[in-house]
Amino acid sequence: MFAEDDLLPLSALQHFLFCDRQAALIHVDGAWADNALTVEGHDLHRTVDAMGQENRSGVMVRRGLSIRSWRLGLSGKADVVEFRPAFREHDGCSVPGHEGRWDVVPIEYKRGKPKAHRADEVQLCAQAMCLEEILGGRVVSGELFYGRTRRRHPVPFDSDLRLLTEESAKALHAMIRSEAVPVRAYAAKCRQCSLLSICLPPRRSGPRSASAYLAAALQDGVGRGLP
User: Fold this and answer.
1) Mean pLDDT (whole number) for 131-143
2) 198 Cβ contact partners less than 8 Å away, ≥ 6 residues apart
3) pLDDT of 149-199, one tens digit each?
4) How would residue 218 be classed by pLDDT, with cut points 50, 70 and 90?
5) Exposed, middle or buried: residue 201 (CB in 10 Å: 0-12, 13-18, 19+)?
6) CATH number of the domain that 201 lies in?
7) Angle, CA of 124, 127 and 128, to the nearest 5°
8) Which domain holds residue 105?
9) CB distance 85 to 123 below 8 Å
10) Taking the model in full, what pTM does it have?
């Protein structure tokens, strides 16, 4: 269980799985820079927040909901959480101030499109685990809405994704405690990173050592959710 001062932003988990060096530059060194992609993402989240709360057809929709998990050591806000009446009385979660049981569905908004790595899914799963800790009960699945496709993509919170989320949170905290900024070579994904001019990743040239290859392979494997 983490203390309040040790809680890290939920967004740091997504940064970490995209690139641990990016996460360290932001959350250890305090570096930040915007580009067209980050500005577009901020605008999308502001649009969602401005829509406010609503109830429709028995579904409660809450936006910008503050959540946290003492076990994972994470806190932040969920873009959207839908509370849908549970089909069976023993399913779902209890919601303070409301009778019955509710299926809780976190929905995260992303500006782009579905990705090959699992960073977005892990961030969403971490939100679900925060909600479980706050409300009790089980959050079975969530949804990722991508601005490029304009569609919701369902994400089941199975045991593999939950394990990846827990292990990623542990690794993130370990990196932050170490105050170390990992060194990573330039990769294709660097072109999308707003911190490229700050990070200045070295270009790969010549033979790579076995240890460097293993470190890079491990980072790529975690990002894809491999064991």
Assistant:
1) 95
2) 25, 31, 33
3) 889 999 999 999 999 999 999 999 999 999 999 999 999 889 888 899 899
4) low
5) middle
6) 3.90.320
7) 90
8) 4-223
9) no
10) 0.81
- What string of DSSP letters covers the chain? ---GGG-EEHHHHHHHHH-HHHHHHHHTS------HHHHHHHHHHHHHHHT--EEETTEEEEEEEEEEETTTTEEEEEEEEEEEE-SSTTSSEEETTEEEEEEEEEEEEESS---SSSHHHHHHHHHHHHHHHHH-S---EEEEEETTTTEEEEEE--HHHHHHHHHHHHHHHHHHHHT--------GGGGG-TTHHHH-PPPP-SPPPHHHHHHHHHHHHHHTT--
* Domain count along the chain: 1
